[in-house]
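Suppose a colleague, Dr. K., hands you the sequence of a protein chain of 695 amino acids and asks what its three-dimensional shape might be. Before reaching for any lab equipment, you can write down a predicted structure in token form. Begin with the sequence itself:
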Amino acid sequence: MANLNNNIINTNIAGNTSNILVPDIAAIASGIEFKSNIDSNVLNGYYNLLSEAVQYLQFTGGLYDETADYGEGNIASLVIKNGTDYSIWQFRRNANNPQVSNNNPPITGASITTVNGVDAYEGGTLNTDWDKLTEDYAIEATANTVMGRDSEGASNVNMPSSITNTSIVNNQYLTQKLSLKQDNLTAGTNIIIQGNTISTSSNVATQTDLATKQDKLTAGTNITIENNVISASGNLATKAELVSFDNTNAQLQLVSYDFPRFSVEIPTYNLVLSDGTNDYNATISKQEDGSYLLSGVLDNFNITNANEVDIQIKSINGISESVLTYVFPAILSQFFEIENISESSLTLFDTLENEVNIQDKNNFQFGFYFEGGPSSTLYLKIKSTEVLSIAGSTITLNIKNRVLRPTDINIFYIDTTTGQTINQIQLTQTNSTVSYQGTYNGYTASLNAIYFYSDLDMSNYFNLVANETSLNNTTGITSSSGKAVKFGIYLSPSTTNIYSLILAYQDGSEINQRDVFTFNLTPDKNSTLEPVYRGVDNVQQAIEVLSEEVTNVQNDIETIVLNRIKPIGSVYYQISEVNGSFDNNKSPEKLFGGTWQILHNNEGIFLRTEGGYANENRINGVQGDAIRNITAYADLQCGVYSYGGAFKTSGALRGSSNDYNPRPSFLHMDFNGIVPTGSENRPKNRLIRIWLRIA
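The predicted structure, expressed as tokens, is then:
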């Protein structure tokens, strides 16, 4: 049967509904009207043979006020169908008989039994006088007939063959309830609540207003505006490089350089690892996402420490321990920023998830070190936060790189003065030129050699020297001593990709322990990059060009400011820390920028102004140490009569002539105990560094 609309309740048939009052809250919440198609000829618990054209409606639970005398009180209706026409008969299930104004009940010939005030029809036949059944009564929706059910009322529905949801809303009831709820409403900005009406103030745009504004909008390419909806279609630009840029007026140029000119793909490195007894294979290789992975499976690795595991690295790409000192910084520093290689203060990294797995544990730290310093055994140390079992175990390594610094632009070496730190000299691009930038701390020798490993053929940039003494003069490397420097890059014929950068003074003097060399070294060849210009045709390129121009302007401003406050030739005094060391982060290069070199760091001098005796015995700008003349006297008799201060005596003085046997005596001078003594004359002082800006 089709769903019934509002006008299904006949007030004449229903009779007086004044005691069918407001339903309870549960009924309103459910808001369900049950319809049961009576295929099983069930009518209110009593059997009647009804056709499938008859629909039985039983409105249950919560229909009535608790004060009404219905008992299980229901309103039941019988709807009779003929095609698309309906006739509805409604029963009040109380002590009254069905009130039928036209005396034409739907069932005739039935035996009526009153049970608990409810008239039950047994037997009888369906009234088929369709003309009378479907007479037009003034049918309208009746007040106080909101219909619903609760869990208790559900028991009054007798075996429905189908249940569908529909609502017949009582306007009077809803008005009453909504009025109560309205008191709890608060009007927001530009909102007005008056009576049962919610409206907006004149300041709020309505749909009509938006429709008016819509006429002012113009749809661009792939944009559609229709019925207040703006939509996009086709291939829309989702990135800046997909948005075109009209470069007619701006005339921006995109400048690029092929740097580095000699690019070297980082190869796969094959490692041989060991537990001291067994060897294991591992690799450092490139992954699909561009990262690099140190990976390997070490089966039955002998663990001898419950807190850490030391894995020996015996060789890398066939290069053995004998020259691993030079290879190690270059290869591993490409992937990890290693500051210290001593076991006591090695650089440790926290493992990421599943990077290291030992005995189903994966919370570790790892680092690399040389046992006993360079030229000794190289290890990968894995420190555990959990106790490990002392046994043979499988160690799984999948350690991801933390940085990426290829050797085609980096020279990594171990600082020879400390033997523990790894430093770098880097090939740097400045617009169209390249140069090697960095520092090196010298050691006492006539020649200093920086040994390094590189996958790059260094002859692409430098004319390699034939031997370690055939050096070339340069101004691209300066010394804190102020002495002119010469250098050369030498490739040993007995090793692969291991170079030595040789430094010496042009005057042949010895390099001192504290001499600092600063590199601003332009290569012998291929130091200039050819710019490639092309027009800007998308927004991303325009952003990059403008960003670079802003950066250049900013650098120019910084250079101007630096040249004003610390022009080339400026001197800066850096005072040492409390413990006598120097913090490199407080150097003038870090504080101000520019290129600086240390002066007089091997002389251990004090500064003195001009005048007085400032030029006495001064050679090459240095005045040697000296003290004023010290005089003393001794009153001599046969023996030493008196002495004091710096004088000490022993024995007896010898007279020029006497009758006695010679009795020698001695007069000594000793300042120890009178003043503190040392290897030089000096006042109390604190260590400083003197810096000179050279670029």
